[in-house]
Amino acid sequence: MSLLQYLWRHPELVKGKRVLELGAGTGICSIVSSKLGAVKCLATDGDNEVVELLAKNVQVNEAEGVVTARSLFWGDEPSAQTLLEEFPRALTDVDIVLAGDVLYKSELLPLLFATVTRVLTASDDVNRAFLLCHIPRADVTHDLVQKQILDSGLKFEEVKLPAEDVANAAAELEECPQEDVERAKLYYITK
What percent of the chain has pLDDT over 90? Predict the structure, then answer.
């Protein structure tokens, strides 16, 4: 939820921009981005059943003109090629990449960052960014995430959220334990 709150406070991050959401799940980040003025959002997930539900969420929220739901397995070239066959510039026509609470096992770290690095380091002059909200789960600590960012040749800064935002999120999200909200960190990642 920290990622959504940050987008609400900083709509300029997505307004008029092309958004790629990784591990979209319900697609909430892409749907909110469309409401904040994004011109195009490609919401992706590696689970085909989730992508079907994601497409329904896009329709229910009347975001079909801006948000497209598709399958993408991180770090998997055949999956990327399938996406690129339909959308040839899907991984380069991107201004900002979004992902919220997607790292629940350490095996996902190099896969996520293989995809992110491919997008952020595309050979053009576009300055892209990746906003990652991470809640430590299982063995995926903040230290591991930060190491993977640096090992991928990328830079990051930790975005500090106002304490009131953290408190409000903890109060509003009954299904999300307060300790998860408090442990979440938002990373702004660039090449």
Answer: 81
